[in-house]
Amino acid sequence: MRKRTEFSEILINETLDGEPVGESIAERTARTASVAAEEPATSNRRLSTKASAKAGKQRPPVDKFIWGIYIGLLFISIIELYSASSSEVKSANIFAPLIRHCIFLGIGFVLVLWLQRLHYGYFSRFASFFAAVSFVLLLLSTFFGADINGAQRALIIGGFTIQPPEIVKLTVLVLLATILARNQRPGGVSTKAIVIVAVVVLIFGGVLWINGLTNMIIMMIVSIAMFLIGGIQGKKLMAVAVVYGLGVGGIVMLKNVGHSSSEYDSVGQTEQTEQTIGRSATHEGRLTRFWKGVSPDDPIDDYNRQIIFARMAQANGGFIGMGPGHSRENARLPLAFSDYIYSIVVEDLGFVGGVVVLILYLLLLGRAGRIAYKCNRAFPAFLIMGCAVLIVSQALVHMAIVTGVFPVSGQPLPFISKGGTSIIVMSMAIGIMLSVSRYAVVSRDRKANKEEAMKLSEDLQAANYSSHQ
Asked: What are phi and psi of 228, to 5 degrees?
């Protein structure tokens, strides 16, 4: 018995299948349990590391609602532009206007894909530069540009027609968002920022007025909307409205110097007859005829041709429309493919189709407002709401003109009307909105907020005080 005990205490250093034979059963059991416990932990750490690396490589998701609205407008654009372009068909290739339109839609689509991948912080870095360049282009088009539909508003470069007023609206928007974000305070936007923004709007708007009253109005609407987002006080908002009113009145007085009342009375309604009359006289004549109105019994002439045929097209549409491509007024209505395309939409798709198009634009504004409300910082909130208000206000102005609520003025329907510059600029606005939806932080995650701060300059770190967490 004693000998067996001594033998059991002898340690043999041999191994069997990698296990020390001389190891006691208790020690072996403890070691095996320890290894077994460590293996799952090590495996989990490896999986966690791989998952984190994979998550780091993945980009944040973009907003599907904005994408859906954008794609819906593109489909409507292709159908209705083809329907409204019969007057442009001048050869055997009846698809030529549609092909040109789709090329610009394709360019815009590529820009959306590219811009949504850029962090929205990059846009502020070049805001002043692009605004200055667009202002120079605007001046060149105003004084040396080509006449397009009776207005000196375009530049022809290398065979391509560029509309600087469309470019200015987006570049100024980004500049305004940058200025307001740099001067955002807990109590709202600072007085300094309000003054600077109002001056910028009046300077750009004063030049825009020469070739389009509605462009100036849209810029003012965008700036007021951004003031409201920044939490402007009521008294300051009223002061801005008064300044805008005085600025518009002063510009009108300056432009009307030297024009006689006979010029105002003789101005033609259609764009073709306005080429020989000053634009200020055109504005005055349009307002006069707007207040006078039109009657179904009025004879059709150059003064009321657009209005009457637009009303006919909408009347033909009824409740459900005549069907895509069955418009009867597209060949007679001047500029049916651009400034009056909404009347063709109503004629083809009826009251229902017209309301659907209106709702799509309003949904875009509502979705942008939801995202802006949740943004932690002020700059992305200003940026996404400014882009949305720009697109929707232009759409509403176009619809108001076509339906007779506003006086006649050239304003394309975003994404649907013919126009290369307009399509590209509005597509860029959609791309900026998607960039904000992807990269703007809407949570209290410290790590995410720190990463967002690294992408923004120090002067754009102001919090979005209207956000709801």
From this structure: -65, -40
